[in-house]
Write a structure and sequence with these properties.
heterodimer; A: 228 residues; mainly alpha; 12 helices; B: 326 residues; two-stranded antiparallel ribbon; two-stranded antiparallel sheet; 6 strands; 37% helix
């Protein structure tokens, strides 16, 4: 109702806005519409999120672009800040995050957090042994090497906890593997208490691959998580 | 412990400390609080932090060694209870904790009150109840205090399974001995606790996971991932962790998870004191009088029960112990 009234009152202005958006022209009135930014970018250097993260935030596994749908909004916001500052080094995301205003970062974080999307298709890791090895690290850890299980912080289900321990179930093996490698080589340095940097540095490449394969094998909505 | 044993400067202090603590009395983390005479260990002359024992030479057998027999089934059940107490022993617990919260790596981790080391020091006489306790009786205490629940009856499947698991883990270890890595490290005691510093350490190092309010955190599917450290869902006033020395030793060796032995001893003591200066469920031995309970079961420099910290008299307004009525 309200929209309709506004539309009648500002018919010309609305038409212009629609045109502007259609042609990707920045317009402050639309700057806070996260769906629009996700679809078409913000008219500045922030290009459409959907081109890499999918129409529903499901991600693009083959390229390692992560799933955003259903992640904690505070976590997403923190990552955007870290991309902008460079604390999380990433050539693609750095200019995009920098081009987003503070309000846009927040509204996009909330937007993606609220999305529900099926798991993106990825060619499954066809190595049961590798997945089993990864499951062992994910749920039991390698304590004599100082590596707690992933589940100690990300939950047995992989559904994550709160603002700082993101959901892993639903992410692709490519993204999980890349993230662990980035912590290990120091290019991702925004983890609280440097927890992930410390843990990733103790994992060798085959262990990283195994953990990635395990989490990549989980469905999005895995809520049982009762048995090791 | 092996590091201490090989260091002549701290060796004597270590012996004093262990003797004072009592071998059996500290074999597991979830001991009911017992007043303990604390002998202050001399600080190393160098001023360097004393080395905390880093591990044990004893390596318990892996899961692949669990036999495919009736006994093996009991071992596996014990491990399952230990790992997921909430789902596998729920009738006996009254909080949100798991055995493996304080006994890391399913009871295998040295300096985290490992089960294999505890198994070796029972049966043992305990001043607490004035008789020789079996291992099962000791496990009953875990349920009553650390898990704020009720003790499974002796011989109950739950206790038999946990005993089977501990026995399995201790295979090949010498009974009647205190192995390196047993219990929690005994840290040289400070003259006093600095609660303000403890609060600061907590906010910097602990709140990320356990929450600023100490209530822990859950995953969306309802699993308590980070255990509550105080409040109604945590261990009660009779639990071993409510003794600051136990908490400090555990924290020093193991916290933040994956970053054990990064806090100074002072930080570990102060943050342990801060954690244990909060309300939690009542001591199950409470019969209506705080003063009497304190006199009979508490007291000592490591125990804040009945004392007033920050205007709160601890134990005075505790929620009743035991599982909440359904």
């Amino acid at each position: 109702m309200l929209l309709a009234r506004m539309y009648r009152r500002h018919q010309l202005k609305w038409s212009l806005m629609v045109i502007c958006v259609a042609f990707g022209v920045s317009n402050p009135a639309f700057a806070l519409d996260p769906a629009s930014i996700a679809r078409s970018g913000n008219g500045d250097a922030a290009t459409a999120c959907s081109s890499c993260h999918g129409d529903h935030g499901e991600g693009l596994p083959d390229n390692g672009f992560p799933r955003l749908a259903g992640l904690d909004s505070r976590y997403l916001r923190t990552q955007l800040e870290a991309f902008a500052s460079g604390a999380r080094a990433n050539e693609i995301m750095h200019p995009i995050a920098k081009a987003l205003s503070s309000d846009e970062r927040q509204s996009l974080a909330s937007y993606y957090s609220g999305l529900i999307a099926p798991k993106a298709q990825q060619q499954a890791v066809d190595d049961d042994k590798q997945i089993a090895d990864g499951k062992s690290i994910a749920l039991d850890g390698i304590w004599n090497k100082g590596i707690p299980s992933c589940s100690q912080c990300h939950a047995k289900s992989g559904l994550g906890v709160g603002a700082s321990f993101p959901r892993l179930a639903g992410q692709s093996s490519t993204y999980i593997g890349n993230s662990l490698a980035a912590w290990k080589d120091g290019s991702r340095g925004n983890d609280p208490l440097s927890l992930m940097a410390g843990i990733a540095s103790k994992l060798d490449q085959s262990q990283i691959d195994a953990v990635a394969a395990y989490y990549g094998s989980l469905p999005v909505d895995r809520s049982e998580g009762k048995k090791p | 412990m092996s590091d201490i044993a090989s260091d002549p400067k701290t060796w004597f202090a270590g012996v004093l400390f262990l003797a004072a603590a009592g071998f059996a009395g500290y074999s597991m983390g979830c001991y009911p609080v017992e007043p303990v005479k604390v002998v202050t260990a001399p600080q190393p002359a160098t001023g360097a932090l004393p080395q905390t024992p880093k591990g044990s030479k004893f390596i318990p057998p892996g899961d692949d060694k669990i036999p495919d027999t009736e006994f093996g089934k009991s071992v596996r059940l014990g491990q399952a209870i230990f790992y997921d107490t909430q789902n596998n022993a729920k009738e006996f617990i009254g909080n949100s904790l798991q055995c493996s919260n304080c006994h890391l790596d399913k009871g295998r981790q040295p300096d985290s009150a490992p089960l294999w080391a505890a198994y070796l020091v029972y049966p043992a006489y305990r001043a607490k109840n004035g008789h020789v306790n079996t291992f099962q009786e000791r496990l009953q205490g875990c349920f009553e205090y650390s898990m704020n629940g009720k003790a499974p009856p002796l011989g109950d499947k739950t206790l038999v399974a946990l005993e089977s698991y501990a026995y399995f883990l201790a295979k090949g270890a010498p009974t009647g001995t205190v192995l390196p890595g047993q219990g929690y490290p005994k840290l040289p005691r400070p003259d006093k606790f600095d609660f303000a510093n403890g609060k600061e350490v907590y906010s910097q190092k602990c709140a990320l996971c356990h929450g600023a309010d100490g209530a822990g955190q859950q995953s969306p599917d309802g699993q308590t991932v980070f255990p509550p450290l105080w409040g109604s869902k945590s261990y009660n006033w009779g639990a071993g962790m409510s003794s600051i020395n136990n908490a400090a030793g555990f924290i020093k060796a193991n916290m933040p998870l994956s970053q054990g032995n990064t806090l100074t001893d002072k930080q570990a003591w102060d943050v342990a004191a801060y954690i244990d200066s909060h309300e939690r469920p009542q001591d199950p031995r409470f019969k209506g009088s705080l003063a009497e309970t304190q006199k009979e079961h508490h007291g000592g420099a490591n125990d804040l029960y009945g004392t007033t910290v920050g205007g709160v008299t601890l134990g005075k307004d505790s929620v009743p112990s035991g599982p909440l009525p359904q």
